[in-house]
Every structure is written in C-alpha cells, then in structure tokens.
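Reply to dn_fold:

You asked what the input looked like. This is it:
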Amino acid sequence: MKKCITLCLTLALALALAAPASASGKADLSVIGGADGPTGIFVTSAPTAAARETSAGNGVVDMQINGEYIDFTGAEPEIVGGRTMVPMRGVLDALGATVDYDHSSKTVTAALGGVSLRHTIGTEEITVSGGQVLTMDGASYVKNGSVMVPVRFFSQALGLEVYWDRGQRTAVVIDKQKLIGQIDSGFAILNSFQEKQTAGRGENLAMTMDFDGTAKVLDSIGGDKEYPFSMEMTGLYGPSAINAQGSMDLSILTALMEAMDEEVPQEMAGLLKDFDFQMIYSNAGLWMQMPAVIDMLRDSGEAVPQGEVWFQLDGSGAGDMMDLYGIALAAQREAVTMGGMLYAIAEYSDLEVPVNIYDDVTQTAALLNFIADRRAGRGSIDFNRITPMPPWVYRQPTNLALLEKYGEGNCARGWGLENWGTPQNALHPERSAKEYDGGTAIHFDTEDREVRELVRKLSLIFKDIHLDYLWASEDVGSHMGAAQYRDGETIIEYIPTPGTRAAVEKSLDILGGRAADYGLTFDPATGNYEYKGGTGHDRAPADPPGRHPHRLL
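and this is what came back:
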C-alpha cells in the first residue's frame, strides 16, 4: 500500500508539472497529426561519445570543446584531488583566444571575445577585464611543459558553460552565447515573432488546461506499452511558486505497478479514474492534497488526522520535473530566442550525457533549416529538399490523353507517388511554420498515405540523427504507424493491423484526440471500438485511408 501511495504521489506530481511544459511545446512531448492534421518529427542525435568509449574505459580524461574532442600535446587532462585539471594553453587555443606568456613573472595573459585575463602560475587567482580578481577552486601547476588549471576556470573567467560527463569521463566546454547566436542567425523572423508574442507578459501565468497524454511502460521482455491519461487543471504558475488544482485519470498506475510485479489494492483501483488533487509549491517546499489517498489510508487503519490533510514533500524532491517546468515557464514568460530554446531542450535532454549537447543543438537546427519550405520558413517541410522533383516532370493538371502521352511516372502525381509516397508535396506549409514552437518537432499534412521512404532518405543526409516518424489518417484506425531511422536503416517499425484496438488507440495517440471526438465508442464485449458517427467523420475506422497528419521527431 505504501509503495502504491508513493507512486501515486510521484505520478500526480509529474503530470501536474509536465502539463504546462508540454502545453508550451517546450517539453519533450508532442502531439502530431496526419492527413488534414499535424505531423511531428522528433530529433535526437546518436550518442557521439561512443567513439571515445575505449579511452574512457581506461580511465583517461577527455576534453570536448564546442562539440569537438581535443587532442593535446604534452600534458593530458587529469583528475587531481577530485578536480578536473586541463592544459590551459591547449583549451584557450582551441577556443580561438590569443595567448602570451611572460617567463620572468610566470604570468599567462589571454584575450577572447572582448574578455582579457591574467594568471600567475602556482596561484589560485585570475584577474579579468576591469581588474576583477577571481579565485579558482585550486592552484595551477606545470606538467610536461603545460600549465594545468581547474576546468571551472573557463566558466569563471570567460563565462563559458562547463559540464562533466561522468560516464564518458569527459570535460565539456561550450561557448553557449556564441552557439545560440549562430543558431539565431537563421531564425531572425521567428525570433521577431516570438518577441512580439511574449511582450507585456507578467511574471505569473494563469493556466486552464484540458490535457491528454500517454505514458510508456518499458518492458524488455513483453514489449513496451503505452497507456493514455487525462487531466483537467487550473492554476497560477510563477517563477518560484505554483498553486494548482484539478482532476486526473491515474488508471495507468495499475499498469505501472504490474510492471514492478506489485498489485494495486482493489479499493484503490476505483479511485484512480477520477483523482482530485491540489498542489502548492514554493521555495520552502511542496504540498499536495489528495482526498482519495487520505481515504485509503484511513480505510487501511493508518493514523491520519481528521479534517483536511496535506502531504508535505521536500521541494528539491521535484528535481527534474521542476527543471522541465522552469524551461516551459521561461519560454512563455520571457523573450526566449529559438536558439535559446533549442539549447535549453538539449541541455535538459542530455543532462546525463552532456557530450551530446552541442551536436544536438547544431544538428537539430541544421535539419530544420534544410527541410524547411523556403517560402513558409522553419517548422515546415518541402519534400523537394529531400528528393527534388526533376524539371522534366509535367506539373500541370492532367487528363487521360496527357497521361498516355507523357506516362504516369512522368507527371507530377504519379512521380510523387513513386518517389515521395504521396501525390503532392506537404500541404499547408505556412500553417506548419506558424504553429512551429521552436522545439525539436514539426507537424505536417499530406494528401494521402505516409512518407516513410522519404524520411528514411532524410536519415541518409543526417546520418548521426535518430529520426522518429509517426503518421495517422483522420479515418481513425485505418492507416497509421511509427518508425525510427538512422543512417538509412530502419531501427524500429510499428504498424498495427487496421481496424484493431491497437490501431485505433495508436491513431488517437498520434492525432491527439479522444475516441468520442471521432465518433468512436469502446465496446468491452468485443474489446474494440465501434463507430457511432455524429462528428462529421463519414467513414468507419477500417475504411480506406484519407488525408494524413504526420509527426517528425
């Protein structure tokens, strides 16, 4: 019972904090469509650290600067007294700094990006522009002709981002502002729009949301499973405090417990369907009030005070969930640029593997720029960017005589079907660009069918990126699926049988709607969904596919 209640608290907290993040589009969650709806693409780079596993496994300390591994001459990076020490000159040279050394005073001077610094070997002090003196967390020393300094020196003196990748034993240094500036140079129009959207917003955000999502239960033996959940919530979200209340469906807790070989008490299962909560968070801590949990504790004989009872949690216990919430809130409250958002998402996603941050930011931006429709802008996709339609293809409307004259494969629709998988280029590119939120997913529509082969070819262009592609027809349950590609290879492909329960639920997951929105009702007797109509959709789930929304990740 205690483990079940603990999971209940954790799950409720995670959903309550993740909802505003995903609502802003800054979480690693996306809802995509198909035919006449959105499509999404999520982009994550492959683990670039793999090539360094041999040296990492041998205890060697590596150094990565702005995405590139550095090979030093003379002394190598090392760990001394718990501090990562690196060759000062080698790092400064890699950053593009100018460096001078005065042998008589044993003083190093350097200049980079308008910042100058001076350091005397054997001391802990750095003097930077304007005469400010900074104290390092350890004194420098000379080894094999190289001046060794703590890696944090570069964040203190030059304002760079410094990370330690424990798994790869690699010190990572990134010039964050330079990288963001490079990304933003290709997003001038979107940044201008974002600035206007956020102008005048206050520090606090009032939100009312009706939120649907999917939780994935990882099972290496029986196969991963996804379970839907829903939540209605209102709240006031501030930079250092939250006050929210609502109701959520926590039926997925049953599946989570089963995955851990635990059993959910029967009296609890019924309460999870309509689970009311209230949450208050501040710097002092986090409190949650859940009447259903209190009732269960009382029924099980626990000594619980009468009246309104709150659970108190250590505010730091929210951990990564509060970090995710912070990214979402900042993106809505501040004039965050596209480059800044991409960096924040990569930094959060790669928290445990910071050697991937630089590549994730640059490769994501490069891919989005590459596939964009040049008239619509970022967030859209032009199939010609991947597989260009040759100039000799007949593009005008055709009739039977023209098809006989030129051949179906030499006319636009026939050529599109053969080479793109769909008769036309992506539909509504301007809408896709307008709805793009600056994250790592785009949504697009096609006239008919999916474009798996096109996405596979895109993975040949960006070989180090895993591309997740999801598609679904708005004729729910008829034509949908998900696939992942890397370097032209199909890593995962999941295409359920049309008309089955799995097909319907996968379609709803991709389309982002509920069964009732498409005139569908679940029949427990058959274990499947039945089409009842009445929503404007004129075909049953197993009818031929129509237009498709897609999601590329």
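The chain is about 30% helix and 25% strand.
Hope that clears it up.
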